[in-house]
Design brief:
With 380 residues, the protein is α/β, with parallel strands linked by helices. It folds into two domains: 4-136 and 305-347, Rossmann fold; 139-303 and 371-376, Rossmann fold (3-Layer(aba) Sandwich), CATH 3.40.50. The protein has helices spanning 4-12, 14-21, 46-61, 76-88, 105-113, 139-154, 165-174, 193-206, 228-241, 252-263, 278-281, 306-321, 373-376, and strands at 35-39, 65-69, 93-96, 118-121, 132-135, 183-187, 220-223, 246-249, 271-274, 301-303, 332-335, 344-347, 349-350, 358-361, 366-368. Helix 10 links the parallel strand 8 and strand 9 (271-274). Helix 3 (46-61) crosses helix 12 (306-321), helix 6 (139-154) packs across helix 8 and helix 9 (228-241) crosses helix 10 (252-263).
Length: 380
């Protein structure tokens, strides 16, 4: 476990940091010469804020300047406008979580022509444009774990004490002879790379023999465009249609929206899991080991340490600007110790999910459940 008190204090000062930087949605970036830029999907999303906290921490420790920019709306066009201004102003490096698969080639070529190294995190930039991509974990790891969690939640099985989801699912399905389970997915946009990759891996997991005749291999996928109102509308559509027993949301905005919608419709019987932030999900989850997790709409969920992901992103970007990391397979960079984290070395590797380009893997999915939620509410 991280040094929670120190991390919580850092999280509380994030808003003050952003106020100084002037990164509110739709605001034009100021003079950013020599700055390392983090460009997120849109403003007002805590995931991007926390990732920048770790990014800035590392850049500050190196004596480097950093900035956080995000458009008001999660569109490619809005991000490209910000990128164009940053490149013109002479930024040192650019890291981005993209809003789509297409539309970045021209502006990123401008960055490459200017000698600006490009990185992506969370939602990937095309491999031919970036130095490397920072992955919290493999797409297979996320997609598999989300399906396994949905199965156990559908069967009202608590998160296993040994943390082995696969073993618990195999044991549960071996004796299951009930009706076929059906899951829904409340995702971001139809063309968001990271969520779409996870959904592909969910489908692949459902093709395994253990699920045949027990879990429907098709997922009912709806898109909320990572906007709270649209995601709430789609969550309510799941409730009114009443065709799924568990909603899986691989996006923090979708998780919060579905949590609110399901809490307002307690008779639906639909449960929720996915990738969420404890601070946003505390009203919809068990908070104590004594709680009955299945009296809540979301018995357990997962994510990763978003702050640490920002640290790794900054470590890669800094090393690239120093000429010591090129993102090719086997190239590595050192991340200094922070708080209770020891010094670590990260290595670029071929994408374990078989996609082109290299990735840097931060760690494994982390499950939030009744035994640890209280520790994380003030952290993430």
């Amino acid at each position: 476990m991280k040094t929670l008190k120190k991390m919580a204090a850092g999280a509380l000062c994030v808003c003050l940091t952003f106020a100084v930087l002037g990164c509110s949605g739709g605001q034009k970036p100021g003079k950013e010469d020599g700055v390392n830029a983090w460009v997120f999907k849109s403003s007002g999303i805590i995931f991007g804020d926390l990732l920048y906290q770790g990014f800035k921490e590392v850049m500050d420790s190196k004596g480097e300047k950093s900035t956080y920019q995000a458009p008001a709306e999660p569109t490619v066009t809005a991000q490209v406008q910000i990128l164009d201004e940053l490149i013109t102003q002479g930024v040192k490096s650019i890291s981005i979580s993209t809003n789509g698969d297409q539309g970045y080639d021209r502006i990123m070529q401008k960055a490459k022509d200017a000698g600006v190294p490009l990185f992506s995190a969370d939602s990937a930039l095309s491999p031919d444009l970036r130095v490397t991509h920072i992955n919290p974990t493999s797409q297979t790891g996320i997609g598999t774990a989300l399906i396994q969690a949905a199965v156990l939640i559908n069967l009202r099985i608590p998160y296993p004490a040994d943390k082995d989801l696969a073993k618990a699912v195999n044991a549960a399905l071996a004796s299951y002879n009930g009706p076929e389970m059906k899951f829904g997915v409340l995702s971001a946009s139809v063309d968001t790379p990271v969520q779409n990759g996870w959904i592909v891996k969910m489908h692949e997991e459902l093709q395994k023999d253990i699920y045949k005749g027990k879990v429907n291999p098709e997922l009912d996928v709806k898109y909320g465009n990572d906007v709270l109102t649209e995601s709430t509308t789609q969550a309510n559509a799941f409730i009114s249609e009443n065709k799924v027993s568990v909603i899986i949301s691989p996006t923090t905005i979708g998780m919060a929206a579905a949590g609110q919608a399901l809490s307002a419709a307690p008779n639906s019987g639909i449960k929720l899991t996915g990738l969420g932030l404890p601070s946003e999900m505390q009203s919809f989850m068990p908070l104590s080991p004594n709680d009955d997790e299945f009296s809540k709409v979301c018995p357990y969920m997962m994510l990763w340490d978003v702050i640490d992901m920002g640290r790794v992103l900054a470590g890669a970007a800094y090393a690239a600007t120093q000429g010591t990391f090129d993102g090719k397979p086997g190239s590595s960079f050192q991340l200094d110790a922070y708080s209770s984290y020891p010094a670590r070395t990260y290595k670029a590797e071929n994408d374990p999910d078989g996609k082109p380009g290299t990735v840097v893997i931060v760690g494994d999915p982390y499950v939030f459940y009744k035994d640890n939620m209280a520790d994380w509410i003030n952290v993430l």
